[in-house]
């Protein structure tokens, strides 16, 4: 199982980090060891500035290569929410040197994944999702604001990577990302249903 992640897919998030709006999906990867086991996230010793990034996640149900956008919807049946934890200080250092982001993005426990739900139960073109930190809403996203749609992402990524059943795609985060500290509680909602409940240690 591989985890494909899309960066800068919400224009307001790109702006808040001082990044240009991309012409094509910005892709990075996380290893399967990044998936968090349980509900406790431990801040790694190599970072003093770990940020939460809430995202809609697709689970690939049908493999493929060179998938056309028109048929991309046939390759996933379920969606969920996930948190892409990012060591922002380390990422900034790596970016300043022109180096890859994997150390800042793919460390153990950096990919939080909740339960998955049948996509037909949702309007995927206008799907609200949100994140609360210590009961205060910090991210309030909607898929209608994505630069690249789910089908765009699947078609683009499959030009480079063969998609396999069970692969996960993190589709990008809206504005409002921020730092986590010890004892923070993160709660993620898909529409009005709580999907994730994460404790920071």
TrEMBL record:
Upper taxonomic lineage: Bacteria, Pseudomonadati, Bacteroidota, Flavobacteriia, Flavobacteriales
Protein name: FAA hydrolase family protein
PANTHER family linked: ACYLPYRUVASE, ACYLPYRUVASE FAHD1, MITOCHONDRIAL
Fumarylacetoacetase-like C-terminal domain mapped to chain residues: 2-190
InterPro entries named among the record's database cross-references: Fumarylacetoacetase-like_C (IPR011234), Fumarylacetoacetase_C_sf (IPR036663)
Gene3D superfamilies registered for this protein in UniProt: Fumarylacetoacetase-like, C-terminal domain (3.90.850.10)
Record key words, sorted: Hydrolase, Metal-binding
Superkingdom of the source species: Bacteria
GO molecular function (one): hydrolase activity
Taxonomic source organism: Chryseobacterium rhizosphaerae
One matching Pfam family: FAA_hydrolase
């Amino acid at each position: 199982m591989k985890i494909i992640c899309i960066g800068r897919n919400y224009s307001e998030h790109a702006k808040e980090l001082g990044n240009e709006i991309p012409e094509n999906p910005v892709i990075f990867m996380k290893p399967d060891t990044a998936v968090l086991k349980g509900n406790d996230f431990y801040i790694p010793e190599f970072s003093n500035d770990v940020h939460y990034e809430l995202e809609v996640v697709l689970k690939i149900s049908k493999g493929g290569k060179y998938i056309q956008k028109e048929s991309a919807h046939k390759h996933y049946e379920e969606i969920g929410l996930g948190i892409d934890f990012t060591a922002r200080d380390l990422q900034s250092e790596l970016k300043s040197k022109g180096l890859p982001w994997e150390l800042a993005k793919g460390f153990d426990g950096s990919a939080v994944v909740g339960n998955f739900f049948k996509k037909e139960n949702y309007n995927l073109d206008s799907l609200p999702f949100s994140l609360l930190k210590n009961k205060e809403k910090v991210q309030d996203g909607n898929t209608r604001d994505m630069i690249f749609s789910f089908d765009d992402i699947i078609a683009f990524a499959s030009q480079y990577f063969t998609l396999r059943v069970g692969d996960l795609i993190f589709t990008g985060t809206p504005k409002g990302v921020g730092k986590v500290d010890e004892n923070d509680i993160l709660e993620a909602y898909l529409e009005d249903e709580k999907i994730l409940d994460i404790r920071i240690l």
